[in-house]
Specification:
About 35% of the residues lie in helices and about 20% in strands. It contains 8 helices and 14 strands. A 7-stranded mixed β-sheet has the order 7-6-5-8-9-14-13, sandwiched between helices. A 3-stranded mixed β-sheet has the order 10-12-11. The chain has a two-stranded antiparallel ribbon with strand order 1-2. Helix 3 crosses helix 7 and helix 4 runs parallel beside helix 5. The longest helix is centred in the first third of the chain and has 23 residues.
């Protein structure tokens, strides 16, 4: 969409509702198409841990041409590849990975803050926990949770130690001041609380790729592989930033996730177990 059209729609306060309606419509069509095309693959192979359907293969999701250069150059693990989308429920590999760990987490009566809520993760959480959803642009997510609040991750309007779990997947790479966001999440977590903060990352980079102050979508797309990203994290640097904030971080490597391969998780992606120390 042209930026000038976007600004006009934002001025009329209809941009985000229109985008939400567009996304919902596209997903509805995709679900119908994929369910039809993948009937012949049903019955063996990968098992979706959301809907429990089994397919010989899942739907591939590759970056478009404008995003591909940076992702390929730095070998970024960013949610793209083969067997990413479940043909039946459209769950993504990154959702299935997060859910695998949530299934093993005690959620009863736990208070969860869920940023930019993914539909399948939110639907599971609301059945088991006390969930508050939030985003800087909440109207994108009204179809997932009508009660979603407008919250800036760098200045969260909640008291200290309010939540047992904070989930904010694939948002840090959008935030110029990620240090402030990490500090705020740390602040609102209870001692012993957990955070799920997965991001796109590269294990081939020595340093995180970022240039503070850039606000040019085309340049960001070229540099970082998406027009609203502000960096590509080097994995070790991302972990160091979390630890500097005060978090304890355990990297669960991809080989250690072998028991989840059957759920078609993202190839080569690790999982970060992040927690706030008890004292």
């Amino acid at each position: 969409m042209k930026e000038w059209i976007k600004k006009i729609l934002q001025g009329w306060d209809i941009y985000h509702p229109l985008q939400s309606f567009y996304r919902t419509s596209i997903l509805t069509i995709q679900k119908l198409v994929y369910r039809t095309l993948y009937i012949k693959y049903k019955g063996k192979g990968f098992t979706c841990n959301v809907c429990r359907y089994v397919y010989e293969k899942f739907v591939s999701d590759m970056p478009d041409k404008l995003n591909r250069d940076a992702i390929t150059k730095y070998k970024v693990i960013a949610g793209y590849g083969k067997n990413i989308i479940c043909p039946n429920c459209l769950s993504t590999a990154r959702e299935r990975l997060v859910l695998a760990f949530l299934y093993e987490t005690e959620l009863e009566n736990k208070k969860v803050l869920h940023f930019s809520p993914e539909k399948n993760i939110y639907n599971y959480l609301k059945r088991h926990a006390i969930v508050t959803t939030a985003d800087l642009f909440p109207r994108f997510y009204k179809t997932i949770d009508k009660k979603i609040s407008k919250v800036d991750a760098t200045s969260i309007d909640f008291d200290d130690e309010q939540f047992d779990i904070v989930i904010a997947c694939h948002i840090m790479e959008h935030i110029p001041d990620d240090k402030a966001a990490m500090q705020e999440i740390y602040r609102i977590l209870k001692c012993g609380g957990k955070a799920i903060l997965q991001v796109p990352y590269s294990e081939n980079l020595l340093y995180t790729v970022e240039t503070p102050g850039i606000n040019e979508p085309e340049l960001q797309q070229k540099l970082y592989g998406q027009k609203d990203h502000v960096r590509i994290y080097a994995l070790h640097d991302y972990v160091d930033r979390l630890k500097f904030t005060g978090f304890e971080v355990q990297i669960v490597s991809y080989p250690e996730l072998k028991h989840l391969y059957n759920n078609a998780i993202q190839k080569k992606e690790c999982f970060l177990k992040i927690s706030k120390p008890m004292t």
